[in-house]
Design brief:
Layout (H helix, E strand, L loop, with lengths): L21 H22 L2 H4 L3 H30 L10 H32 L8 E11 L2 H8 L1 H18 L5 E4 L4 E7 L3 H17 L3 E2 L2 E2 L7 E11 L7 H24 L4 E5 L7 E5 L3 E2 L1
Parallel strand pairs: 6-7
Antiparallel strand pairs: 1-3, 1-6, 2-3, 4-5, 7-8, 8-9
Length: 297
């Protein structure tokens, strides 16, 4: 079972880090400055002059300190060119404030953008190796008492119960989820980028949705509470490794994670079913079980 992904999109990104050609970004800054300059020269209004902040902020975000400083310098020159009275010195107080703000906005936006990028890198990298660390949660779940349902109401009812669970999984999982039916009534759900707290919440929401639905099975309506699932969860952070990667190591890591979640599933079953259990150990030992509605026990 291979759970890690090799492509760069496996690592979450933020808007500041999304790629944009430098030429396009430079064109946006230059174009915006030119438009604002034209309007400023025609109106000489302070509200229009404040618009210079926008391309300065954009340049600071995209090109860091150098870009913010360059855009601020360009805005100062254009401000002078659009308002010839400024060239006659001394400056009015409003002129000094405007120029100071151009510089401050450029440097501050660059600093905030750099800090955001640095925090993002810290959030997605392993502090020991500096490699990307992608958390992943694995849910292993199955339908409780399916045999009893088959024996009492027939295999068609059982098959539709499994189909109902599959539909609720498809409807309730976040984007990026990989889900499959592993056996007759057993499902495996991989949640990339998901930590234990969020995985537990997702699993319990799914458990509640299954138990709360009023299914129609083999043409017969059944009340809410007819169906229930037990869920085992295991979580792990996979630190990136230099290329080339060893597929065998990926497979072993995936299998260890599956075994841990599977052990947690059996703990949920043993605890009374309709429960979520979380593995607290890399190999599925030391399992913490949670009741469906009453929280940890």
């Amino acid at each position: 079972m291979q759970l890690t992904r090799h492509e760069a999109s496996a690592v979450p990104d933020v808007v500041l880090n999304r790629p944009m050609p430098q030429g396009l970004a430079s064109g946006i800054v230059i174009g915006a400055l030119a438009v604002i300059f034209a309007v400023d020269r025609a109106t000489a209004l302070a509200p229009v002059q404040h618009l210079y902040y926008l391309p300065i902020i954009f340049a600071g975000i995209r090109f860091s300190y150098r870009g913010g400083a360059a855009a601020a310098a360009a805005a100062i020159l254009l401000y002078h060119a659009a308002n010839p009275r400024v060239m006659t010195f001394p400056y009015a107080e409003s002129d000094l404030v405007q120029i100071a703000l151009f510089i401050a906005v450029g440097l501050t936006s660059a600093k905030l953008a750099n800090d955001s990028r640095r925090l993002h890198r810290l959030a997605i990298t392993d502090d020991l190796t500096g490699l990307h660390a992608l958390p992943i949660a694995l849910l292993v779940l199955d339908l409780d008492r399916l045999k009893s349902l088959n024996d009492t109401h027939g295999h068609l009812a059982g098959a539709e119960a499994v189909r109902t669970v599959g539909r609720l999984i498809a409807e309730g999982m976040p984007s990026g989820t990989v889900a499959c039916r592993y056996g007759g009534d057993e499902f495996v759900v991989a949640l990339p980028g998901c930590d234990e707290t969020r995985a537990r919440a997702i699993a319990d929401d799914l458990r509640g949705a299954v138990n709360g639905c009023a299914p129609v099975l083999a043409g017969l309506p059944f009340p809410a509470g007819t169906l229930s699932i037990s869920v085992g969860i295991a979580c792990r952070s996979f630190a990136g490794r230099p290329q080339p990667r060893d597929p065998a190591l990926d497979d072993m890591a995936g299998e260890d994670l599956f075994r841990a979640a599977d052990v947690a599933l059996y703990a949920a079953k043993a605890g009374g079913r309709n429960r979520v259990a979380v593995s607290r150990h890399a190999h599925g030992l030391d399992v913490e079980t949670a009741r469906g509605s009453a929280g940890p026990v």
